[in-house]
Design a protein that fits this description.
The protein is about 55% helix and about 15% strand. The chain is built from ten helices and seven strands. Helix 2 crosses helix 7 (about 110-130), helix 4 packs antiparallel against helix 6 (about 80-105) and helix 8 runs parallel beside helix 10 (about 245-265). It is globular, with a radius of gyration of 22 Å.
């Protein structure tokens, strides 16, 4: 059971944000640090223990199948797809464990998103550096998740008004340097729409030339992000990398947009 708890994204999240030296000076936690993790065992009954143990046994089985020698043999005999399937299965099982523990802890949906994104993106960027997948291009599903959460946050803010926010996301290519999402205000919610505007891609490539600016005196270059307000629309333009379009980033961007809207109303 203790091993199962160590598989948790929540455990990884808590240990990393509360211990400055873990993962930098050393790779192992010490008993005193482990004991600081919030206790959840008192919330376990026999049924919950059996369910968690079963999930952990499945994880151990998949991990054993993912051993280095087995993986090399699978690739050697042209079975790369099976390696990918095992990786996806392991990821799915760990997410199931996380969902199980999140419910026991009574975490809100927003709290679950923050922890999950931190483990999947921030932790991976910390461990893998420039080789992290957070620098890869954004997938359409990720764009839709970002837009859906952003609209949800804004519509919660606007629930006492007659306005609602919808979004349009675009098909982004591997070689497109920028990604854009358009928000539009209407009298009723219209969800997230998907568009394939080829003229837009060319415009974004032109915009990208002006987003990279050198900071005077220090030889550093900064790539800016754009949130442009025009009539009843808001255009969000950022680099086409996963780290800028996480669900957690949607929560942050929603807060910035709300502050800007309130400042405009008070101006």
């Amino acid at each position: 059971m203790r091993g199962a708890l160590y598989e948790l994204g929540f455990f990884t999240y808590f240990m990393n944000i509360t211990n400055a030296s873990w993962g930098i000076e050393r790779e192992r936690g010490i008993l005193k640090e482990v004991l600081q993790v919030p206790a959840i065992m008192k919330e376990f009954n026999a049924g919950r223990c059996c369910k968690l143990a079963a999930l952990y046994d499945k994880i151990k089985t998949v991990v054993s199948q993912q051993g280095k020698e087995e993986k090399e043999l699978l690739i050697l005999f042209g079975c790369e797809q099976k390696v990918d399937d095992l990786s996806e299965k392991l990821k799915s099982l760990r997410l199931s464990v996380d969902d199980f523990i999140f419910k026991i802890l009574g975490l809100s949906e927003k709290e679950q998103i923050i922890i999950s994104d931190w483990v999947e993106y921030s932790m991976d960027m910390f461990e893998s550096g420039l080789g992290s997948h957070v620098y890869n291009q954004t997938a359409l599903d990720e764009n839709k998740q970002y837009a859906d959460l952003l609209c949800g946050e804004l519509n919660t803010f606007l629930q006492s008004s007659n306005s609602r926010v919808g979004a349009t996301v675009y098909h982004v290519g591997v070689n497109d340097p920028l990604n854009m999402i358009k928000l539009h205000f209407a009298k009723k919610e219209c969800g997230v729409l998907v568009s394939d505007d080829r003229d837009l891609k060319q415009s974004l490539k032109e915009i990208d030339k002006y987003l990279l600016r050198k900071k005077a005196g220090d030889g550093l270059y900064v790539r800016k992000q754009i949130i442009h307000y025009k009539d009843d629309k808001i255009y969000i333009i950022k680099q086409n990398q996963k780290r800028f379009w996480m669900r957690t980033q949607a929560i942050i961007d929603a807060g910035d947009i709300i502050q800007n809207i309130m400042a405009m109303e008070n101006a």
